[in-house]
Amino acid sequence: MSPETDSVIAAAEAEVLALPGKLPDELRTELIAFRRDIHMHPELGNREFRTTAAIKARLEQAGLEPRVLPGGTGLICDIGTAAGAGALPMLALRADIDALPIPDTKSVAYRSTVPDRAHACGHDVHTTVVLGAGLVLAELAREGRLPRPVRLLFQPAEEVLPGGASDAVEAGVLDGVGRILALHCDPKVDVGRIGLRIGAITSACDRLEVSLDGAGGHTARPHLTTDLVTAAAKVITEVPAVLSRRVDTRSGLAVTWGRVESGHACNVIPQHAELSGTVRCLDLPAWREAPDLVHAAVDEIATLHGAKSEINYVRGVPPVVNEESSVELLRRAMETRRGSYAVEGTEQSLGGEDFSWYLEHVPGAMARLGVRRVGDTARRDLHCGDFDVDEGAIEVGVELFTAAALLD
Fold first, then answer.
1. Based on the structure, what is the number of domains in the chain?
2. Hey, which residues does 369 pair with through a beta bridge?
3. Are residues 267 and 162 in the same domain?
4. Alpha-carbon distance 170 to 151, whole Å?
5. Rounded CA gap, 49 and 156, in Å?
6. Deepest of 48, 220, 338, 399, by most Cβ within 10 A of its Cβ?
7. Could you give the dihedral angle defined by the CA atoms of residues 406, 129, 173 and 170, in that order, rounded to the nearest 10 degrees?
8. In terms of residue numbers, what domain contains 77?
9. Within 10 Å of residue 355's Cβ, how many Cβ atoms?
10. 59-107 pLDDT, tens per residue?
11. Are residues 253 and 275 in the same domain?
């Protein structure tokens, strides 16, 4: 690097180090309360009206001008565009705001008040982190200390395939953006730490629905029928086996079934069966080929057993592929704030994330935010009714994004 570049980096790092060692008590308390309020009132994808209103009200209270997305939920808010940094590309900080259709089984004061709805993936934390970072960055912008403009992006419907990110992109949320960052709660990482990875950090994820039809009849005479239950069983077991021999196993292409329905009586061979599941893939080129490969495998197995198949293959999301310089930015931000011990490597997950759609257009990266209480040895996972976090992770996330905005 040139001496000029070294000087710019040193100045940015000095600005980060000049930040308070921790959030003011008043702001920390407010953010925890905000997270708990959202946690108690979870909303499903594209129905996040209360959540959107709460975010909008707090940003307006801070003197900002948030703009609700065309669908009526989710919003964006720009910071620092009126300053001299306004001519530079924006850094976008993305949070997803929707919840899951599962019951909250925790025994805590902030347990969900909505039956069969829960923030069991940490989106309430993501939302609170980006809101908190926005409040800190807005104050820095008023003081003339924000080097480039920042866009806060609160996205709806991440849990709904193919995800709300594609609608957000179509609505122009990336206009003027040069880089985008996100984080995701990780119950396998201790609070105070983040996990980083260059390249693919999540899997592609699509939805597969299969209908099988054939002549039914009495179970005493299966030879006069299309034995549809057996045909369904063969599709369930043999389609994944066939695919394993048609795709490089390193691509990680996997079909996993989650629902099977057929028949109503023990002595009647049914005329209809339905299967549904997911198709996941670690490799982007293999993901692009997956629909044709899955269609062919299902048709072959169904035809072999005399069943007629109808396939609905719903494209979901490609893998999140972290761009190297964006990962390095997150690393520098965390290390400058909390030291090298606060950063660890992380593996590629088979979970899907629609943040990937933004990375089709601009460089960026997603970090894994540690939310496990230090010393907790229990195995925990996302999308479980008892999912919860160490709320100290909120302050860590705010520090990470604030530092990244100053260093970018």
1. 2
2. 185, 194
3. no
4. 16
5. 10
6. 48
7. 140
8. 3-199+320-407
9. 26
10. 999 999 999 999 999 999 999 976 555 578 999 999 999 999 999 999 9
11. yes
Same domain for 310 and 327, yes or no, is: no
Find, among 149, 147, 92, 158, the residue nearest to 124 by Cα: 158
Contact 211, 309 (CB under 8 A): yes
* Mean of all residue pLDDT scores within the chain: 93
Average pLDDT over residues 155-165: 93
Q: Which of 38, 156, 138, 154 is nearest to 402 (CA)?
A: 138
Token reading at 370? 């540690």
Residues 6+ apart with CB under 8 A from 261: 273, 274
Residue 180: which CATH number? 3.40.630.10
pLDDT, residue 10, reads 61
Give the separation between CA 363 and CA 366, rounded to whole angstroms: 11
**Can you give the three-state secondary structure of the chain, one letter per residue?**
CCHHHHHHHHHHHHHHHCCCCCCCHHHHHHHHHHHHHHHHCCCCCCCCHHHHHHHHHHHHHCCCCCEECCCCCCEEEEECCCCHHHHCCEEEEEEECCCECCCCCCCCCCCCCCCCCECCCCHHHHHHHHHHHHHHHHHHHHCCCCCCCEEEEEECCCCCCCCHHHHHHHCCCCCCEEEEEEEEEEEEEECCCEEECCEECCCEEEEEEEEEECCCEECCCHHHCCCHHHHHHHHHHHHHHHHHCCCCHHHCCEEEEEEEEECCCCCEECCEEEEEEEEEECCHHHHHHHHHHHHHHHHHHHHHCCCEEEEEEEEEECCCEECHHHHHHHHHHHHHHHCHHHEEECCCCCCCCCCHHHHCCCCEEEEEEEEECCCCCCCCCCCCCCCCCCCHHHHHHHHHHHHHHHHC
Helix axes of 324-338 and 3-17: crossing angle, nearest 10 degrees: 50
Which of 298, 317, 336 corresponds to the end of one domain?
Answer: 317
CA–CA separation, 94 and 127 (whole Å): 8
User: Long-range contacts made by residues 6-13, C-beta under 8 angstroms, separation at least 24?
Assistant: 9/407, 12/147, 12/406, 12/407, 13/332, 13/336, 13/407
Interval 120-147 mean pLDDT: 96
**The length of the chain, given as a count of residues:** 408
Q: What is the pLDDT of residue 27?
A: 96
Kindly report the number of other CB atoms within 10 A of residue 303's CB atom.
12
The predicted structure's pLDDT at residue 4: 56
Query: Among 317, 349, 381, where does a domain finish?
Result: 317
